[in-house]
């Protein structure tokens, strides 16, 4: 009987879900694209709920109008797409895109960098908040609070696409991906969906509604940046590095995802440690 437990566990079958939800002629709707769209729409809806809940803000004074977020969603979408694509091109596969520059525009083939997308959204938030006279960190806080849902959905789409899979393993829940070679692998996309999506969203929910940290600008945003960075670094130990990059600096563990996420952790810690509650001016 003991010999049975020494045998390698069979991998779980890949669900083989069609990456395309529906296709009409040359037009196709992909799970990957839907994940981005639903994530952006949820973050917009959730942010509007936050900025209309006076209990969450200092002295019940709302930091912005819901209509401001209606206008910002366009800025956010542009920042995510342009930043995410630019980041992937620069950080992950620059030689290929130098050789084939038109492939830069083939976003339907995949290839988006969260770190680039984050920088794109930060730039969009900074420009938009200055233009509208909104406290930049409060805008960052309310947007960040809903972002994990979109992150989780996109990671599930990565799993459906059979991309960004994990390293070979013999854990009982290993999956043999159709394009991952004859290996049972960590479903690292689902690890990320759980940590960057569900767990991070719940942590931020506690901070906004139980700890009332929206009254302390940049704390929630800092927690999001730090939480994502820690989650990404952890999962990178189970995720196969990008083939064109491999492991970095002669190691068998350091990846580009770890390098890009480390400054996020440090920046998030700084933001939380230096965040101070807002003091509203007293009437004359």
Mean pLDDT: 90
Give the overall shape: globular
Largest sheet: 2 strands, antiparallel
Helicity level, as a percent range?
55-70%
Could you give the order of strands across the largest sheet?
A: 1-2
- In what range is the share of β-strand residues? under 5%
Quickly give the structural class: mainly alpha
Low-confidence stretches: 1-8
- CA radius of gyration is 21 Å
How many helix segments? 9
Beginning-to-end CA distance, first to last residue? 82 Å
**How do the helices and strands follow one another from N- to C-terminus?**
HEEHHHHHHHH
What's the number of extended β-strand segments?
2
Subcellular location: Cell membrane
Protein name: Phosphatidylglycerol--prolipoprotein diacylglyceryl transferase
InterPro entries: Lgt
GO molecular function: phosphatidylglycerol-prolipoprotein diacylglyceryl transferase activity
What would your notes on this structure say?
- This protein is mainly α and 284 residues long.
- It has a domain at 140-283.
- Helix content is 57%, strand content 3%.
- It contains 9 helices and 2 strands.
- The chain has a two-stranded antiparallel sheet with strand order 1-2.
- Strand 1 and strand 2 form a beta hairpin.
- The longest helix is centred in the first third of the chain and has 26 residues, at 66-91.
- The radius of gyration is 21 Å and the shape is globular.
- It starts with a helix and ends in a 10-residue tail after the last helix.
- Mean pLDDT is 90; it is low at 1-8.
- Its EC number is 2.5.1.145.
- InterPro entries: Lgt (IPR001640).
- Belongs to the Lgt family.
- A 1,2-diacyl-sn-glycero-3-phospho-(1'-sn-glycerol) binds at residue 155.
């Amino acid at each position: 009987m003991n010999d049975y437990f020494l045998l390698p566990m069979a991998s779980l079958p890949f669900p083989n879900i069609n990456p395309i939800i529906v296709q009409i002629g040359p037009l196709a709707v992909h799970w990957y694209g839907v994940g981005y769209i639903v994530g952006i729409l949820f973050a917009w809806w959730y942010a509007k709920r936050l900025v209309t809940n006076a209990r969450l803000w200092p002295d019940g004074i709302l930091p912005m109008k819901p209509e401001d977020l209606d206008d910002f969603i366009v800025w956010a979408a542009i920042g995510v797409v342009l930043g995410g694509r630019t980041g992937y091109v620069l950080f992950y596969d620059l030689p290929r895109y130098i050789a084939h520059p038109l492939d830069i525009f083939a976003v339907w083939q995949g290839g988006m960098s969260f770190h680039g997308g984050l920088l794109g959204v930060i730039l969009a938030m900074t420009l938009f908040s200055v233009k509208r006279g909104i406290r930049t960190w409060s805008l960052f806080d309310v947007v960040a609070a809903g972002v994990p849902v979109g992150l989780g959905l996109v990671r599930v789409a990565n799993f459906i696409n059979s991309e960004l899979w994990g390293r070979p393993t013999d854990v009982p829940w290993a999956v043999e991906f159709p394009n991952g070679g004859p290996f049972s692998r960590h479903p690292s996309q689902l690890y990320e969906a759980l940590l960057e999506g569900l767990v991070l969203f719940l942590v931020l929910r506690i901070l906004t509604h139980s700890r009332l940290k929206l009254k302390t600008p940049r704390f929630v945003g800092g927690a999001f940046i730090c939480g994502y960075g820690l989650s990404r670094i952890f999962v990178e130990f189970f995720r196969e590095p990008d083939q064109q990059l491999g492991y970095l600096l002669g190691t068998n563990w350091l990846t580009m995802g770890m390098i890009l996420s480390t400054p996020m952790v440090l920046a998030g810690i700084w933001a939380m440690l230096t965040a101070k509650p807002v003091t509203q001016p007293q009437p004359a």
